[in-house]
Design a protein that fits this description.
heterodimer, A: mainly alpha, 82% helix, 0% strand, B: mainly alpha, globular
Chain lengths: 216, 215
């Protein structure tokens, strides 16, 4: 499943390109909204970074089941024999890979445009990005499947997703902040534990309830 | 059954009013404004009890697929959202004269607001799906996610806030609460819990009637 989605994405590059330019546009909007004051920009940088990740994630995940719906393959998904949680994991892995690629590129753009020195913070940053993205993608995949068959889905999907993601957003922003200030990871260990707990809870609910959503 | 519950709730509310305005003394520093606590605090307790009931009903629905469990989950989450709204509104009314502001991004306020938005989204999802059976399934999944997310929201928002400012500032001191005030609080809690149960009972019956009419 993940393989199929990634293959389709590699062939078309449709979502990846659009998401990248969306992130780039966001970067400019942030810059214009906040003005050129470097001090202030530095203070809000972790928040901006994660806002960018989550917004592009929302856009990308909202399209996760688009291919199936537009090409009338939804019934195919429903009729797939075996465990439905395999479909969930496949979709999740596909979205996760896409989001991580976009996030890595956005991070590089941030370094260039906002002149931040990541340096030694990079391994910790990679850890928190992976943890946070798993959380976003785990709930996002579940909700995307839910809203795929609902009217006003473009509207409903972020309305459902954003409030649920508040703990993930807080945790990732706090850890990123500490990393950029060169604080040791041990100081934010409780946040990392919270992120792990959130990932475990979301993944467990997704695995257990995904077959319920694919019933019809 | 639900009529009896209604009368009980009415009697409880009358007793609660009596306790809150009659028996409980005027608070020395805050004055009469403090009496809004007898509605404010029990409302949030009842809201969280209702969400817990909604969680259990959602799980039962997914396991057994009884429409009654779905109606209970729907009604419980709706009533929980209502009581949480009451809690936020009364908190703002209390906050203005006491703290000098309607709203502040304090840990408790923020986490309650996030939970409120989560359950409003739950009600929106229900509204957006026409097929009743599908609405029940999706809402049950979302209800479970939202309810299990409450502890995560609480921890994260609490850490987010308390790392910056001492929590004692905005924390009502429970240790210094005189027994009279505690008694008034508990009577009002019982009254609001009865009222919430009454609302849920009525709401499930209305939902059942709606389904019958549509079927």
């Amino acid at each position: 499943m993940a393989w199929k989605d990634l293959l389709v994405e590699r062939r078309s590059k449709e979502t990846l390109n659009a998401l990248l330019f969306f992130s780039l546009a966001l970067l400019f909007v942030f810059q214009f909204a906040l003005g050129p004051d470097r001090e202030r920009l530095g203070a809000v940088l972790p928040g901006l970074l994660w806002l960018g990740f989550i917004l592009s994630g929302v856009l990308g995940l909202g399209r996760a089941f688009l291919v199936e719906r537009e090409n009338d393959c939804w019934e195919g998904l429903l009729l797939t024999p075996g465990d439905k949680s395999a479909i969930y994991l496949g979709k999740l892995a596909g979205s996760l890979a896409l989001m991580l690629v976009v996030e890595a590129l956005v991070l590089a753009l941030f370094v260039v445009f906002f002149n931040v020195d990541l340096g030694p913070a990079l391994p910790g940053l990679a850890l928190v990005i992976v943890l946070g993205t798993i959380g976003v993608a785990a709930v996002g995949t579940l909700f995307a499947a839910m809203t795929a068959q609902v009217r006003a889905r473009e509207l409903l999907f972020p309305v459902l997703l954003l409030p649920v993601l508040v703990p993930v957003l807080l945790g990732t922003v706090k850890v990123t902040e500490a990393l950029l200030l060169r604080e040791p990871l041990a100081d934010v260990a409780h946040w990392l534990k919270l992120l792990v707990a959130a990932d475990v809870v979301y993944l467990a609910i997704g695995l257990l309830t995904f077959d319920v959503i694919l019933e019809g | 059954m639900s009529t009896a519950l209604g009368w009980l709730a009415a009697a409880g509310l009358a007793a609660g009013l009596g306790m809150g305005f009659g028996v409980a003394p005027r608070e020395v520093t805050q004055g009469n404004v403090q009496r809004i606590m007898y509605l404010h605090v029990p409302a949030v307790w009842v809201a969280y009890l209702a969400f817990a009931a909604g969680l259990v009903a959602s799980i039962v629905y997914l396991a057994r697929r009884r429409p009654a469990a779905d109606r209970l989950a729907h009604a419980a989450c709706e009533v929980g959202t209502l009581f949480l709204g009451v809690n936020i509104a009364t908190g703002a009314i209390w906050g203005k004269p006491t703290w000098g502001t309607w709203w502040t991004w304090d840990a408790r306020l923020t986490s309650v607001a996030v939970v409120f938005v989560m359950f409003v989204a739950y009600l929106l999802l229900r509204q957006a799906i026409e097929d009743r059976e599908r609405a029940a399934r999706y809402a049950a999944v979302l209800g479970i996610v939202a309810a299990l997310n409450i502890p995560l929201v609480h921890f994260s928002v609490y850490w987010w806030r308390t790392l910056h400012q001492p929590p004692s500032l905005l924390k009502p001191g429970s240790s210094t609460m005189p027994p009279v005030i505690l008694a008034a609080l508990l009577v009002n809690f019982a009254a609001l819990a009865l009222l919430g149960a009454y609302f849920i009972a009525r709401r499930t019956r209305v939902l059942a009637a709606e389904e019958e009419a549509l079927a």
